[in-house]
Amino acid sequence: MYRRRILAGALCGSLGGLSGCNVFAESKPEVNLKSVVVRNLDDEPHAVDVEVIRDGETMVRKTPSVEQAGTGDDSLAVVADGVDREPAAYELRMKLADDEEWEDALLTPVDGGDCLAGEVRITKSGDLSVWKAGISDC
After folding, report:
1. Between the CA of residue 43 and those of 63, 94, 101, 120, what are the distances in Å?
2. Which domain holds residue 70?
3. 128 in the same domain as 115
4. Cα(14)–Cα(70) distance, integer angstroms
5. Which distant-in-sequence residues (6+ apart) come within 8 Å of 3 by Cβ?
6. What is the DSSP letter of 19?
7. CA 124 from chain center: how many Å?
8. How far is residue 114's CA from residue 105's CA, in Å, rounded to a whole number?
9. For 29-80, what is each residue's pLDDT tens digit?
10. Is the pTM for the entire model greater than 0.85?
11. Which of 30, 49, 73, 105 has its CA 20 to 30 A from that of 38?
12. Is residue 20 located within the same domain as residue 76?
């Protein structure tokens, strides 16, 4: 098995430019993405850099500012809404605007609906996390 993989890798290396061959690439799950928002659960306001990547290409890049938790709609910002309904592999890249290192998260299917809503959450400790929910009314 290992020998076949090496041989396939060598063959793809010599013909890869012509055939698009990549035996080592992992396939990413596809989802129907409906929306991506930023929600602040911290008691301080924050700005967050967010990129929504669809099939390897950045489709949205925003830096929303969100107020501290408890300020109603001001602690929530829409990054992407009404996204293309065709299934695709989606990733989120995010960081607090003052930070230098990006965090990456793959949006994977969840139970509970035909579409997916993604949420970048600023936790009570000021860290970033990703929350996902299935939505049936897409």
Report:
1. 19, 20, 23, 16
2. 31-135
3. yes
4. 58
5. none
6. H
7. 21
8. 20
9. 999 999 999 999 999 999 999 999 999 999 999 999 999 998 888 899 999 9
10. no
11. 30
12. no
